[in-house]
Amino acid sequence: VTRSSSILLGALLGIAVHHRWSAARRYLTGPVGALASAASLAFLAWSWVTIDGSDDAGFFDGGFFVHAVAVCVIIGRVTLVDTGLVARVFSIGPLRVLGIVSYGLYLWHWPVIVIANLERTGTDGATLLAIRLTLMTVLTAASYVLIERPARHDWSRRRHAIWGLPVAAAVTAVLLVAGSRAPDAEAVVGVVPTTTTTTTAPAETTDDAAPATETDSDTVAPEPDGEATEEPSAEPPPLVVTATPPPVLAVPTADDPLSVLLVGDSYLFDAEPGIVAAFESVPEIEIRTGARFAFAATDDDALGVLADLRDEHEPDVVITMWARFDAAWLDDRDDTPAARDEIERRMTEAFDVLAADGAAVVVIGLAPSLGGGIDRVPVDRAINEVFLAATAGAIGPVVYLDPDPVVAPDGTPDRWLAVDGGELLVRKVDVSHYCGDGAARWGLALGELLAAMTSVPAADPADWWTGDWREDPRYDEPEGACAP
Questions:
Q1: For residue 416, what are the β-bridge partners?
Q2: Which of 175, 445, 468, 475 has the fewest CB atoms within 10 Å distance of its CB?
Q3: pTM for this model (two decimals)
Q4: β-strands 422-425, 416-419: how paired?
Q5: What is the pLDDT of residues 372-429, one digit of tens each?
Q6: Coil, strand, or helix at residue 357?
């Protein structure tokens, strides 16, 4: 559906040129066509340089249509007026050949990008681009010579082209299977745990005790994974709280529960169902959600939004998860010292606003993720250094929670997480947002964290690990995002 406008507009242009529609020819060959084609070229140049297809939601709400119109204007102009500079450039031999095989290239480019990625090739940047272009060229040329050209032009060889169709389908199927990361036969994805997950509380420290190291402080880490057995365990691996979080003054009961507020962007929005399911299984916890798309702590109106959420819900604990938009804010300013100082100030103010009435604030860092675009490389996580600095400078009780042990223990972005007995599908196809298993991991981790911060018991995953919450539509947004 997203690309249908491009295909339909291209077909309409082809009909107009082929049947010599006078109105189309008059406008495209006259001054209006010259002005429109120049404006279209400028728009395309601007969009290719400035628009990130993964983050600019407006591009999916009519932007592709505008882009397709601009391309059609240029194609129509150079087709009917072959004396201009653009027409002469597009008449260069290699570009004409590219145009002839362009549809085959369109069909092959995406499987190649998916299969030949950083993980499989061990390369990135220019080397990875060269590998992809080589594969695209070979596959496009083969499909054109063996299937497309005989089917379109050589009637005597058409039957050979028809025989080539199942071969092409088989090759495509092999590539798709090779590109997917299905779990082993003994893998466990979203299984019902049979026993209660245990929490190991930190040992009490004294004044003579050595200070916690950076790697040990304020993290949640999994126990070592075991080997997959013939009958894999149905229990998610326990997480261990390794440092004492800031105290929470409230002593919650079922009649006077601990009020917990979730605040963040779309990452937290996808993690919410699992966290909510875990917390709702504990009578001593009352959970409220406040995640929203594209919400960043660096927004100019963020402090007002946070103050409103705090006043509305009066939380005892606020759990925040901000990610890509704040990271982009810093990256757009080249992470200069001035930008770093400014974003640390904004973050500190945000945490202070949330903690103004005595709430404890848990700040979850940006988990290992992949960036958007064709060459998907790991996202720069300098924003986590900002989170750490801001938590240290905040007035209220604020703790930073390292996300890696929860969803990426080896620090590598991946959709799958190996656990005792199999694998969990924790991330969507963008290797950024969370699927049901990832949300469940956050529910498990944060449940244990709250148990260490207060007198509430840790949520028993047997009560919530599976359930209707896993059918939430957000785990199929976009369609197939959480498909194995």
A1: 425
A2: 468
A3: 0.57
A4: antiparallel
A5: 766 678 888 888 888 888 888 787 788 888 899 999 988 889 999 988 878 899 999 8
A6: coil
